[in-house]
Amino acid sequence: MDAARVRDYAITGRKELQSDYRQLAALIDELSKPPLDPYREALRLQLTDTHLEEMREPTEIVVDDHFAWASQLLAKIRKKLPRAPSDDIQLQWLELSDRLEFELFRTANQLLAKLPTASRRQQLDWIALGIDGLYGTGMLSNRERNSLNSSLKILRSPPLSLENYQLELSQLARLSRWAENRLRYHFENPLLRLSRLDTRFRTFIPERLRGSPLLPISRMIDNLQADSRQLRGVSHHLFGAETSGLQPLNPGLARGKLEIVADPRQHDFSAEGIYLLPETVENLPPVAGILSRGIGNSLSHIQLLARNLGIPNISIDESLLTEFARHQGETILVAVSPGGVVRINVENENQQKSFNRNRQQPDFQIEADRQKLDLQQTAILRLDQLRAGDSGRIAGPKGANLGELKRLYPQLVPDALVIPFGRFHQFIEQTRAPDGQTLLAWMRSHYQQLAERPDVSARNKFLRRLREQIISAPLEQGFLDELRTRLQTNFGVDGSYGVFVRSDTNVEDLPNFTGAGLNKTVPHVVGFVNIVRAIRTVWASPFSDRAFSWRQTHMRAPEQLYVSVVLMASVAAEKSGVMATIDLSTGSNRYVQVATNEGVGGAVSGQRAEEVLIDSQGDRVRLLTQTSADRKHILLPQGGIKKIQASAPEQLLSTAELRILRQMAAELPRRFPDLLNPDGSSKPADIEFGFQEGKFILFQIRPLVESTRLKNDLLLQELDAGLVTTSTTVDLEQSPAVRQP
Fold first, then answer.
1. Rounded CA gap, 452 and 134, in Å?
2. Strands 289-292, 313-316: pairing kind
3. CATH number of the domain residue 601 falls in
4. Using 50, 70 and 90 to split pLDDT, how confident is the model at 422?
5. Which of 42, 370, 487, 640 has the fewest CB atoms within 10 Å distance of its CB?
6. What is the tens place of the pLDDT at every residue in 635-677?
C-alpha cells in the first residue's frame, strides 16, 4: 500500500472516513521518506561544524572515516543529550543517534573483512572508536568507557609486554558482559513478565546485543585475544575444535554427564553432573562441574566453595550454546588449568582411564579436632570473651575470629553474643528422639546405618526428621532465661533491636575446607520469641540436604559436627560486600579484589555486584564489573529484610571507601594471628564488610581456602606445560597471525 492509493480510495470511499484516510496517507508519506544522511543531519542540528562532502564515495578509506564519525557523533550526542535546548531538539538527536548506530554497525562489519591484514595497532584504534560508539548507544557507562580507555592506553604504549597484552585485552573483553548487564538491569524484570504473554520476549536481550555494533566490535577484541593466546601458547578446545568464547573462572577437572538447565530452581542436580546454567546460583547442590552463561560475581559463596573444592567453572559465550546442545546428555571431560587453558571433550576410553588413574590420588578429608573440643562451656559469651584460638574449641571460626577482630578494632565490629558448641551438645543430649533415645544417640545410630548402607532417600528422610526434632523440641528454661538476660544486657529492651542469627560450626573455615554459605543465617530478627525460633533454625541448618551433601563429599565422620550460633547486632548498611586479599584470577597478593552491592548482605549470594581490583602498591582501581543488580535488601523495623529497587550507580564505593579497604587489607595480615604462615608470609583472607554513613564495619574474616590438589594434578600440569613464561614484547605494527573468529 502507498499514500497515493490511500488518497484515491479516500475519494471513492465513505465520506465520513475521508479525514482519517488523509491522515493515514500523510503518515505513510512520513514513514516512506528516504533516510536522512546522518552526517548532513548532524550538521543541520549543529552537532558538528565539519563538512563531510568528501565522504560520499564508499572507498576503503571512507569506511574507516564513516566508522570514526559515527562513533564520535554517538558519543557527542550521549554527552550533550541531557542539556538539549528543547524537547524537540532532544528527540531529533535521539532519532539521529538511532541512524548513527546502524551506520556504526554497518561500517564495523565492513572493517571485519580487513582484520587479516590490519596491524594490532590499527585494530586497537578501531576498538577504541567502537567503545566510544557503544558508549554513545547507552550500552556502556562513562565509568566503563574510562576503564576500557585506560586499558587501551597501556595497549597502545610500547614497549608492550605479552603479560600486559593478555591482561588488558581480557579487560577489553568485559565490554560484552557489561553491555548485557546494563540491558538486564533495565529490561530483565519487565521482559520476564511479558514473556508470560509471549515467550519471544525472552530473546530480546540476546537479539538486541547481536543486532548492535557490540557484535562486530567484540569480534575485533576476540581476534586480538586469540592472538595473545597464541603468543602465550594458550588454546581453548571445545569438542575437538579450537575456539574462543570460553572464559575460565575457576580451575579444576571434572567428568560427568552434560545437562543444559533452563531454570536451576526447578532442576534435580546430581553430584556427578556437569551443568550449563543461565548463571551461577546461590543454592547450588554438589556438582562435578559448572558451565555458566553469566559470570555472576567471583566472591559469592558458591564461587568460593567451587574454588576450594577444585570444581571447574567456565563462562560460556552465547554463540557456543548450539554446540553444547548437540552433546546434551553425553559424558564429557572438563579441564581448566591454573594457567587458564580450557579443554571440553566428549569422553573416550583412553581419557576415562587417564582420568580415573589421576583421580586415585588421595583427596583431603574434613577432620574436626576432637581433642580440642570443649563441650563443658555452655554459658553464652560476649565477643570480648573469645579469641581466634577458641575456634573449634568453644565456638566456630565466625564467633572466635569476631572476638579477635573486636579486640583489634573495637569500633568497627558490631556487638554480638555467641552460643557455644557446649549448649548445642547439651540440647541434643537432653532431647529425646521418637524411639526414646537421646537425639545424640539417635543421630549416631543413623550415621552408622548410612555408612553401612548408603541410600540418598533414607539419608534425606533422616535429615528431615532430625531438623524437625531440632526445630520443635522444647528448650531448657534455664537456657531461655540466660538468653533473655544476655540479650537485654547487651542489646537493650526486647523489640528495640535486631540481630543476625548466624550458624558457626567446627567443620568450616578449616585449612582445607571453607564451607562458605552452606549453613543458615537468619537476617535481622526482632523479638525474643523470633530469636529463639531463629536459633533453632540455625542449629538445624547444617543438616539440610544441600549442606550435608557438600560436606560429606569430604567428611567420613558426620557425628564430629557441632554448631555454635552468633547473634550479631543488625546494621543497616547502605553498602556491603566481600573482599579477598588477592587477585582471584592470578593469585597475585599485590591486588585486593572486592565485590559490593547496595544494601545489606551484598555479594555473598551471587548478586550482580560492583567488582574492582585495588592495587595495594598504588592508586589504580581496575573496574571488573559495574553493579547492575536491580534489587537491594533493606532492614524492616518489625524484623526481616525486604527487596526494593536498587539505583545501580556508576560507582558504588567512593574513593575514600576504597582507600579504607586498601588500608584494611594491608593491616589485617600483620595483626590477625590466623593470617600468617609459619614463615611470616601472609595467607589470603576473605572479609565481609559494610559501610553505614561512610563508616566501615567488619562482619566476618576467614582464610581464603583454595584447592591444593590442582597444583599437583597431572592432567592440568600437561595443559600448562607449553605456556610461554619468558618476558616477551608484542610488536604493535605487525598483523596478528591468527584466524579471524
1. 61
2. parallel
3. 3.30.470.20
4. very high
5. 370
6. 999 999 999 999 999 999 999 999 999 999 988 877 887 777 7
Task: For residue range 129-177, list pLDDT tens digits in order.
Answer: 999 999 999 999 999 999 999 999 999 998 999 999 999 999 999 999 8
Where residue 531 sits, what CATH number does that domain have? 3.30.1490.20
pTM for the structure as a whole: 0.84
599 vs 635: CA distance, rounded Å: 9
> What integer best gives the mean pLDDT of the chain?
86
Q: How far apart, in whole angstroms, are the C-alpha atoms of residue 644 and residue 478?
A: 40
CA distance readout (Å), 124 to 69, 161, 167, 341: 17, 16, 14, 25
Task: Report the 10 Å Cβ neighbour count for 684.
Answer: 20
Segment holding 103, helix H or strand E: helix 87-112
Contact 518, 305 (CB under 8 A): yes
3-state secondary structure of 477: helix
- C-alpha to C-alpha distance for 700 and 580, rounded to whole angstroms: 12
End-to-end CA distance of the chain: 43
One domain, residues 475 and 424 = yes
Strands (E) across 272-413 are located at 273-277, 289-292, 313-316, 331-336, 342-346, 381-382
Distance of CA 479 to the CA centre of its chain: 41
pLDDT tens readout for residues 442-454: 999 988 888 888 8
pLDDT digits (tens, 9 = 90+) for 258-296: 999 888 878 888 888 999 988 777 778 888 899 988 766
Three cell numbers at 434? 521418637
Pairing mode, strands 237-238 and 273-277: unpaired
Structural domain of 29: 1-33
CA-to-CA dists, residue 261 to 270, 279, 321, 571, 582, angstroms? 12, 10, 12, 37, 32
The count of domains in the chain is 5
